Amino acid sequence: MGMEFDKLPITPLVGADWKTFKAVTANKVIDKGFRNKYYLTKMVCRMLSMYQSFEDARYRKIADKPLEMDPVFILGHWRSGTTFVHNVFSCDKHFGYNTTYQTVFPNLMLWGQPFFKKNMSYFMPDKRPTDNMELKVDLPQEEEFALANMMPYSYYNFWFFPKHMLEYCDRYLVFDNITAHELEVFKETFLKLIKISLWNTHGSQFLSKNPPHTGRVKTLLEMFPNAKFIYLKRNPYTVFESTRSFFTNTIQPLRLQDITNEQLESNVIEVYRRLFYKYEEQKGLIPEGNLVEVKFEDFEQDAYAMTEDIYRQLNLPGFETSKAEIEKYLGKKKGYKKNQYKYDDRTIKIVEENWGMALKEWGYSL
Fold it and tell me: What is the pLDDT of residue 311?
């Protein structure tokens, strides 16, 4: 039985390498009330960093192994159904992925994993905050938290320092203000994460689910010219309600700064716009036949048939050998209780005034 999420005494930065921890927290204000959490995180991080040399030595053995295939990227704004689609596709054993353990301890993967994993599973909550999705150390997970613990140049630094959210958005989400050096570090770090993930899950093709990648299509194609992309659209009214709730709840045990719910909501509205436009601007770079765009509501309606169709459209291997596992997983999901959203007048007004472009482009209405 895991600890309640909002009672966590430390932040996920405990799993950062020491250089990354110092760079992320340098010159940042730690607000009163969060200092104990900061110092405890710092102490544990410093201690765990002592094992880095063992990890580095083991990584050298797999570092030069070339990727067999370019990755598959599941894109879409947070709360667009990316987790569900990721879970369905990861039933296919040819895919490798980032695990929940890896998101927190990406630097303790090749050395000491059994020990640290056992401890993490003891402290970890059983379900994600704000929805009923299952949490377990070996389940597939988005890779941004892992990247945030492997380098200082991640959008997810905003969880700890929310006052800088839009600055991180411009620089590390949509890569508008990123420097050439930072971009190089991002590419190297992400490739390292992929190689370790494939080694860890015994996969031959990396399956990525990471909302922040939605703003990085151009960079991902520079790294992997034949990558495949699945882009999820979802009713913006639902996404607004769900994202506001998810971010407001999730940020509480992670932040080291104060931020009002009003400020957070305002940032959520703006980040959605920037991500939407960046994806629309760059999706034309994806080669013909390597992108499928899906409405999540359609996928949810008949996930099995839609999955088969996506495999076909993207010319992906593995459906035939995985269909029994996919059916089994979807059978288990039948009893899954989703949060229900009823839109109030304020939500309707905010979405129509700020996200009208998505309503219009995707054909959603009340």
Answer: 98
Return the higher-pLDDT residue of 340 and 90: 90
What dihedral do alpha carbons 218, 209, 205, 288 form, nearest 10°?
A: -40
- Model pLDDT for residues 58-76, shown as the tens digit of each residue: 999 999 999 999 999 999 9
What 8-state DSSP symbol labels residue 4?
Answer: P
| Spatial distance between the Cα atoms of 239 and 105, rounded to a whole number of angstroms | 29
Is the pLDDT reported for residue 211 higher than 50? yes
Q: Give the span between the Cα atoms of 90 and 325, in whole angstroms.
A: 10
- Token pair of 212 as six digits: 């922040």
Burial class (CB in 10 A: 0-12, 13-18, 19+), 353: exposed
CB 273 within 8 A of CB 51: no
Residues in Cβ contact with 320 at an 8 Å cutoff, skipping those fewer than 6 apart: none
Cα distance between residue 165 and residue 271, in whole Å: 9
Do 60 and 53 contact (CB within 8 A), yes or no? no
